[in-house]
Write a structure and sequence with these properties.
The chain is an alpha+beta fold. Helix content is 37%, strand content 23%. It has helices spanning 3-11, 21-24, 49-54, 122-128, 132-139, 152-156, 165-207, 219-222, 273-276, 303-313, 332-337, 345-363, 369-387; strands spanning 18-20, 27-30, 39-40, 44-47, 59-60, 65-67, 77-78, 83-86, 88-89, 98-101, 107-109, 113-117, 148-149, 159-161, 216-218, 224-225, 240-247, 250-255, 260-268, 282-291, 295-299, 339-341. β17 (240-247) and β18 form a beta hairpin. The longest helix is centred in the middle third of the chain and has 43 residues, at 165-207.
Length: 395
């Protein structure tokens, strides 16, 4: 029997009470607005609500932001052990994300933050408030929109299990260790993924760099351009459906009709990604699809030729073929001029096979390292939620 089992058997033999945060609270209140202009590199530590989504995890002991408290008219402070909730966000699924402050400086809470003061173990409360059950309560009744809101009354109604303090401390010890191990593993996997991506780029560049012995064609000669068949989807015929609707950066919607049926290489015609390379410029599209006027449509004789050109276009610098107008654009005329090496089909097939394996390892969420990272995250969440699920004590 583990120490936790012994503590539960001794201190909670009949189950664990579930209490609302309103019952737990010594005080619960909203913070007060701190503008971006009032943030500085020194001064009184402070937290703005967006940082709870982007910066802080289960707990934090130092802040990334500071302010001159003399410039804040309605000061709202939080201290060691307080729980902070972000009550404004962009996602129903993440609304009211919370974090425990375990530092020892007095800090200022920004607007759209709710501060919970209590006498429990702060890390335990934060772990309990991160479970799927607690998050479901946080998002209950919220409507998906551009901005999602919660409130002090909504936060106060959240119910969590509240075992005795020795049980809370033991759960925190276990989860802190588990969190540290999970973070170390995630960092190792992320480093491995970064190394594989670097390796992939090295071999891609090496495999797709040719000498004078390989003939050079143009994209206009190695592919058939089907741009004339494209159609924008208008409001009148843009009905929701099963067919992918492609634009400059990939699938943007699903519609009830299609234009193309086959295997194609789509190349961005305009958009920020042309110069920034935020997403691949060239990407494959197969089956029944609709393509608007923001992506060129190229057809090849074989899968090998299509993938070979896709890998090549996503490697080379295309800036000299892109207009530098207010809206960067790769015209069909310039697209057709892009030089493309044309090694024998057997050599193309060898190169594509190697790069396909690298691509799957780096990017395929079902087989690659990203899937391993996601699996470890889900494993952690499963054991955390299981550890924080108790038999409820009956009155």
């Amino acid at each position: 029997m583990s120490k936790l089992d012994e503590l539960i058997a001794e201190l909670c033999p009949d189950g664990v009470e579930y209490k609302t945060l309103g019952e737990i609270a010594v005080d619960i209140f909203r913070g007060s607005g701190i503008t971006r202009d009032q943030i500085s590199s020194t001064g009184t530590p402070c937290v703005r609500y967006g940082e709870l989504y982007t910066t802080y995890g289960i707990w934090f002991d130092t802040t990334v932001s500071f302010t001159d408290e003399a410039s804040i008219t309605n000061k709202k402070y939080f201290d060691h052990g307080d729980i902070l909730f972000a009550i404004t966000g962009e996602s129903v699924e993440e609304i009211a994300k919370s974090s425990a402050y375990v530092g020892h400086e007095k800090c200022l809470a920004g607007g759209d933050i709710v501060v919970l003061k209590h006498t429990q173990n702060p890390k335990y409360l934060s772990y309990a408030l991160a479970t799927a059950d607690a998050q479901n309560q946080k998002s209950k009744g919220k409507v998906k929109s551009k901005v999602v809101h919660s409130s002090v009354p909504a936060i106060s109604k959240i119910s969590i299990p509240l075992p005795s303090l020795p049980v809370q401390r033991e759960i925190v010890r276990i989860l802190d260790n588990f969190t540290e191990l999970a973070a170390e593993l995630a960092a190792e996997l992320a480093a491995e993924l970064a190394a594989r991506k670097k390796q992939y780029k090295y071999y891609r560049n090496k495999l797709l760099t040719f000498g004078d012995e390989v003939p050079i064609g143009t994209l206009g000669t190695v592919a058939s351009n089907l741009d004339s068949k494209r159609k924008p989807v208008t409001k009148g015929n843009r009905e929701a459906g099963q067919y992918p609707y492609y634009g400059a950066s990939g699938v943007v919607d699903f519609v009830s009709d299609y234009i193309f049926d086959g295997d194609y290489l789509l190349v961005s015609e305009d958009g920020a990604n042309l110069l920034a390379r935020v997403t691949p410029i060239a990407f494959s599209a197969s089956g029944k699809i609709w393509v608007n006027n923001h992506a060129h449509v190229l057809e090849f004789k074989t899968y090998v030729e299509r993938k070979f050109v896709e890998y090549y276009l996503n490697m080379i610098d295309l800036s000299r073929f892109i207009s530098t107008a207010a809206q960067p654009k790769l015209t069909q005329e310039n697209l057709n001029k892009i030089p493309v090496p044309v090694p024998p089909l057997e050599e193309q097939a060898h190169i594509v096979a190697i790069l396909d394996r690298f691509d799957a390892l780096c990017n395929d969420l079902s087989t690659g390292l990203p899937a391993e990272i996601e699996a470890r995250r889900k494993q952690y969440e499963y054991y955390r939620d299981k550890l924080l699920t108790f038999k409820e004590k009956t009155p």
